[in-house]
Amino acid sequence: MNNEIYYMFKRNFPFINREEQTAINIINNENNTIFEKRNSNNELIGCAIVNKNTILLFAVDEKYRNTGIGSELLKKCEDTIISDGYHKVILGVGFDYLMPGVPTSKKYTESVYENLSKEVNDKASAFFEKRGYVHSWKKCNCFDMKMSLDNIKDNNEKIGNTINGITFRWATIDDLDKITVCADDACQFQEEKFSVYYRNPNLYQMDNNQKVLVAVKNNIVVGTLIVSMETEGKDLGCVGCTCVSFQESHQGIGTNLVKVGTRYLKDSGLSTASLSYTYTGLDKMYGAVGYEISTYYFMGEKQI
């Protein structure tokens, strides 16, 4: 188990929330090719991980940056990807991900509710852009959001409440078919279907630290949200995979799901909440509850 690389990941990206065991499993995947750079004391100072045509991790300790280590590691990554028969390099998301892309302060279209982590800048994205990588999402931002639960905005809605004729409650396994229909309908114009994330039976156990919140109208599931407690870090709650049936959209259901789920995290005693890997437009919905953009991602790709 390569915990040394995990610790390097954490010290270079302290603002990234990723559950420890998940990150360690990704780092130790048997299909990874790992490139390391060490100093004279055999300390790990640079590392890159390639899986198929994806660079899952690329890091150089701050003290050793701008010395050519990054260029050396990137060449090794690209040479490996070429030799394996691929014609495109992807930064971030492959079979899984440590980060969706390259953390950056640079945005690619307008956004609202921004409060970037102090460690975030555009140096890493500039490094890759200089070497021919482009933002594959074009005029669309990818980002994480966070909030202090002390700053929750005008939110007294709780589990079990009915708002505008829609009841917000925890799902049971008996709801799974309806949840899948709702999630697929919500994602009908996307490549990625969120229903895959809802099929985990553990989500429907009431003592689990991850649960599914549903919005129900006339006995039909019209919205879903996964609410997690301390899965990505101590004292941290998460919301994600927000889905609203297409015909029920633009009625505030998504916002109310996030309000109810976030209120639950606060009432559970947590101090911070976050959501990861979301995109332009949803900053308005999440921001209305109190979340702010903490980092953008350069979703880098390069044809080789």
Strand-helix topology:
Elements: H1 3-12, H2 20-27, E1 33-38, E2 44-51, E3 54-60, H3 69-83, E4 88-91, E5 102-104, H4 123-130, E6 134-135, E7 142-148, E8 162-163, E9 166-170, H5 176-186, H6 195-198, E10 210-217, E11 220-229, E12 236-244, H7 253-267, E13 272-279, H8 282-287, E14 292-298, E15 300-303
Parallel strand pairs: 3-4, 12-13
Antiparallel strand pairs: 1-2, 2-3, 4-15, 5-14, 6-15, 7-13, 7-14, 8-9, 9-10, 10-11, 11-12
What is the beta-strand fraction?
Answer: 25-35%
Main beta sheet:
9 strands, mixed
Distance between the termini: 32 Å
Please bin the fraction of helical residues. Answer: 25-40%
Oligomer: single chain
* Beta strands, count: 15
Unreliable segments (pLDDT under 50, ≥5 consecutive)?
none
Rg calc: 20 Å
User: Reading side by side through the largest sheet, how are the strands ordered?
Assistant: 5-14-7-13-12-11-10-9-8
Average pLDDT rating: 94
Number of helices: 8
Q: What pattern of helices and strands is seen along the backbone?
A: HHEEEHEEHEEEEHHEEEHEHEE
| Computed structural class | alpha+beta
- Described by the principal axes of the CA atoms, the overall outline is elongated
